Amino acid sequence: MDTSDPFEAYKEALHTQYSQLTSYSNLILGAGYAGIFATWSLTKDSLGKASASWVGLLIIVSLFFFVLFEIIRMVCTTVELEKQSKALSNREQYLELMAAFAATQTGMAHRLRFVWYVFFSISFLTAFCAAAVLACAFVGQLAGP
Fold this sequence. Notes:
Blueprint: H1 6-43, H2 49-89, H3 94-143
Helix pairs in contact: 1-2, 1-3, 2-3
């Protein structure tokens, strides 16, 4: 890629920032899941049945959307890498295939980014609600009967 073109350099920087943001978000979500699961598993016996069930259900929904997005992203990346591999295997049509690949990759990246926003929002909100249910149960136990 020619980074002497400011437009192309900006696009590359934006792509890099998006990749880093996604990785960081996954790290934070993973740490959050670990913390909630640890807290829930250590305290579910002392929580009310409804609270423990709600926390479990919310975390399952959150984790489902998180993992589903990662699977979607993995499939999209695999398909795109296979297209690149095909382009590299045909030297005569390489430039034409890479131009077509670049055009489709941009569209796919925009669609995948939209999906990421939706799935991340659902994952975050349900995990946040699970943490809120846990916190409310703790406050209720501290406040007494």
